[in-house]
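Purpose: get a first structural picture of the assembly so the mutagenesis plan has something to point at.
Setup: three entries, given in the order below. No constraints added.
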Amino acid sequence: MVGLDVVLQALLSGLFMGSVYALIAIGFTLVFGVTDIVNFAHGHLVMAAMFVTYVLFKLAGLDPYLSLVVVLPLFFGIGALLYVLVIQRIVDAPHSAHMMVTLGVLLLLENLANLLFGGDLRGVTTRYTTSSLVVGPVAVPLARAGAAVVSLLAVGALAVFLRRTALGKAIRAAANNREGAALVGVDVPRVYLISFSLGTMAAALAGAVIVPFSLVSPFVGHEFILKAFVIAVLGGLGSVGGALAGGLLIGFVEALSSLYISASLGNAIVFAILIAVLLYRPWGIFGQAKV
Amino acid sequence: MSALLSVHGVSKRFGGLQALSNVTFGVGHREIVGVIGPNGAGKTTLFNVITGVYAPDGGRVTLGGMDVTGWAPHRICRLGAARTFQIGKPFAALTVLQTVRIGSLNRIADMAGATTHALGVLEQVGLAAKRDVEGRHLTVIERKCLELARALATGPSLLLLDEVAAGLRPPEIQEMIALVRRIAAGGVSVLIIEHVLEAVMRLSARIVVLNYGEVIAEGSPESLVNDPRVIEAYLGEAYSLA
Amino acid sequence: MSARLALGLAALAAAAAAPLVAGQHLLTAFIVALHAAYMALAWNVAAGYAGQFSLGHSLFYGIGAYASTMLYLKLGLTPWAGMFAGAGLAGLVGVALALGVYRYNVRGIFFALVTLGAAEVAKGLADNWDWIKGPVGILLTMKSAPGEFFFLRREPYYYVALAMVVALILISLRLERSRLGQHFLAVREDEAAAEASGVDTQRAKTVAIGLSAALTAFAGSFYAQFYLYISPDTVLVFEPQLTMMLGTMVGGAGTALGPVLGSVLFSGLGEALRNLPFENTRPVVIGSKLVYAILLIVILIYLPGGLVTLGRRSRPA
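Result (structure tokens, whole complex):
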């Protein structure tokens, strides 16, 4: 029998990681919702940001949270560059082309990182990497809590942006109905560019804030994209709110299942759920069926 | 006369929209029947129900005496009802010959026989010269002819044509009318949805008028021209002669 | 004799003669390339001809590898026969998957994700299944026994791989000229129009997946007998899937030659580079993968039909 405090600790851990997963998934689902493109390289963009953050720390002693000043605009730019050079040219291509081209980007990023840094696992140790705040029966790991807080703030900011600003509304319009939006004067290519860059920036934010407590290697991207898939589908592809709910759900499921069963079995269960959702409720657990 | 196609009390609803309501009519052997009505009247939905794309919520569809209600489209095609699509669906990467041959393979199992048959159909519709052109490179009228050829190649006893004259210039419309007449003369019944009234008036022995999913009139082209219900459906109450 | 047939026979003759001049290292590179070509051709049956873009073919690869291996270890069944059993099992699994998926009308990216999920589930289960030794994997220790699909030298493996590729090329060509193959193409191009033309699209898609799955399983068995070590981390991961896809899409999906072309280019060259007489080949190997990634992107954007389309231009009316 597992004690209550252990369960609480796991739930807390699930909440923290779930928030980060939600941020990663939101960047992914935003791009899909707007441009209809499944970016297989999304997880590797997280990895790339982790490496940039790592380098800034090792070379300049810059704390990951401080390095966001550099990382966020840098990756907005990288997203824009990626869009203009590659993504833009396949927007109207069939889904199979999207998958293959973004797989190409994945391979590019992975091998670039592998070439520059090698395959060894690296870590960053900040002052707060191992610090915890004891609150009642649980210990709150500061690094993870910080990552979660930043992630949730970012999700909130994104939600406000999409609902309240003119550009945000234009993005939602284009996601909803491309031709209709164009007819009412929305600059659809620009909206696509900005959405993709925002999605990339969201991935980078997640990558930077998990560095204090994560292992950095060229191959961590795979795990992130798989989670992003599952969460985006659970929440309804294109739904920001759904991705948040889905991220937290996956965070909890992962944390709780690690208490009772092996990680790989937990993984299998998560994908079995994915299959079930795709078969019975493809619009997501939290989405709405379209007639 | 026993009907080839019998639609009886067919209804279909999509969410809040009643697309078809108690639709009943028939198509006899060697008959050309037209279906007209304003946009959104349910004409294409009717075709989709007859050919098995949707199962109706109520009612029955009978083809050649068999109840085919809710059958999968390929089975209905096997039984002898072939349809064209309103927005032409060429197999983009396949050649004209390959496309029509897919239809021929419905009745003919071996490739050589199917190829010969397909070439014959292409001759009939006038596309023989374009046999090796890929679907994506065809003009509008060529696509229409290809749609027709593909459906014809399946060896139907009933051909359902969905707006086959739409988007054509006047001389092309005449060509299409002549082509449909030739096909019907060969023993195939035709059910034709059309907005181009000239085409449907000249081809049909009988016309069914749909509005808001209901049959509001049925009869010969001449009798319907002055039918107040038809006029009202197309032009609105202000123009009603009643 | 047509020019194409003559060219094909010449290529076959050259390929058959290769072991006479190539050393063991080079032959290994050739074997890897042929293995990749075979896998790509197998995936091409479902994805290239029938348009069923599966991301989970590693599942079938893994079934083939484990089936022939376990049958050998537990029952002493020679892998020559075991691989057929593996193919049969993979085919059944493929059909079962297809029946489930097509019943719910799952298509496009959703279909791809279901297949990916299935492969991930299989890996997770395999990692926890003690009977197949879980994540530790299975090491095959075999006495030199041609009758049990094991050889000490590379040449026999080379000829087996070559035979597999030739056989699958011939099967693909036969498929292209058959009614079933035409049905695959119709399903790929437009399912609604195919149905309206009398094609049983559910059946066609199911057969495509089942056939492709069975063919892929043979590759898994070959892998087991060549590398003599299998584990969930080697045969149930995304790597085999990636190999199949890259070769097919770069070379040209929906053709018999494309997957071979693309695979020989990517896998063969990569393996050859790995065997160069350099002190430290690592940067070269990774650098070449980097170049491939860029090449992949460029080819897929500007030559979406793959390398095979370089030879021909589609004729407009």
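Chain C has one domain: 3-307.
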